[in-house]
Amino acid sequence: MFRNLLYRLFSDDVEPRPLAAEDAEVAIAALLVRVARADDHYETSEKQRIDRVLARRRGLNADEAAERRAAAEMLEAEAPDTVRFTRLIKDRIALEDRSGVIGAMWEIAYADGRRDMDEESMVRLVSGLLGVPDRDSALIRQKVLDDMGLQGDRA
């Protein structure tokens, strides 16, 4: 499955085609995995949070979410650099979904209850590449921190 997705994502189509819903979710999940791995510590708490985010976004059960995360882990490992990878995803997901993706990335960045500059930098980079302004990303970040019961500067 993920080999076909890699081909569809990284083919040299002149006009990028939107991805099927499931493929788009795996690609987005790969971004979440990339955020979680940004600090070189991919912890169980981050994997569990990714599973919860995936389940919430598309109404998956726990097994389906874990399976989608596993596919995303393989895709993320094979994906090119973050800039190219994110630009390709941007061309294939709907604009209205991008804020939700940024919220999910902030949620993953704080899944372990710690503030990590590598993860925060990754979310900020991806936000810009997805066309979400810094101000909007900061507002989304604050909402995520509030929803998670974390204080903005002490996460």
TrEMBL record:
InterPro entries the UniProt entry points to: DjlA_N, TerB-like
Gene3D superfamilies xrefs: TerB-like (1.10.3680.10)
Co-chaperone DjlA N-terminal domain sequence ranges: 26-142
Pfam families: TerB
Name by which UniProt lists this protein: TerB family tellurite resistance protein
Species this protein is from: Paracoccus stylophorae
Taxonomic lineage of the native organism: Bacteria, Pseudomonadati, Pseudomonadota, Alphaproteobacteria, Rhodobacterales
